[in-house]
Amino acid sequence: MIKNYVEFIYAGTFLSESSTEAIGSRNQEIVMPEGAYGYRLFDRVEHTIDGELLVGKGKNYSAWHYKGEVYDAERVEREVPNSSVLLSNMRINGWSKVLKCNQGFIPLRDNDVVIRKEGDMEVKK
After folding, report:
1. Between the CA of residue 90 and those of 62, 81, 83, what are the distances in Å?
2. CB 95 within 8 Å of CB 85
3. Using alpha carbons only, what angle is made at residue 105 by residues 123 and 97, rounded to the nearest 5 degrees?
4. pLDDT at res. 103
5. Average pLDDT of the residues in 90-95
């Protein structure tokens, strides 16, 4: 049977941390837990054989959905003090936009979705 899951991402000490929960449907409303700044959906096949639960690998991953503010290089330069390292990383890595969230600043990929406020989403272009 195919089961649906949500993976939440949290700020960590050096890297982001994550947690995973089973959900009833990929179409249900996702409420992020306290401290989470993003989530993505995925599926996995699970079968019980002779009383043992066999779990497949995650597949059919959605785009990441992030809570935060989008910054382009101009906004970073204008609003972020001591931003030379971030601006350099943006230039070197070809990041046109970054997301300011409780993790700090992270790069945005083309298919990422930014949640501007509850129920209001914008696909990063």
Report:
1. 24, 16, 11
2. no
3. 40
4. 80
5. 95
- Write the DSSP assignment of 72-121 as a string of letters: EHHHHHHHSTT-HHHHHHHHHHT-SEEEEETTEEEE--TT-EEEEETTEE
The tally of domains found in the chain comes to 2
- The span from the CA of 121 to the CA of 30, in Å, is 13
> Is 0.70 topped by the overall pTM?
yes
Q: Are strands 69-72 and 65-67 parallel, antiparallel or unpaired?
A: unpaired
Residue 61 falls within a domain, yes or no?
no
Largest CA distance in the chain: 62
* Six token digits for residue 99: 């997301």
Whether 117 has a pLDDT exceeding 80, the answer reads no
How many C-beta neighbours within 10 Å does residue 9 have?
22
Structural domain of 12: 2-55
pLDDT over 50 (residue 99): yes
Q: How far apart are CA 122 and CA 124, in angstroms?
A: 6
Do 8 and 51 reside in the same domain of the chain? yes
Q: In the chain, what percentage of residues exceed pLDDT 90? A: 80
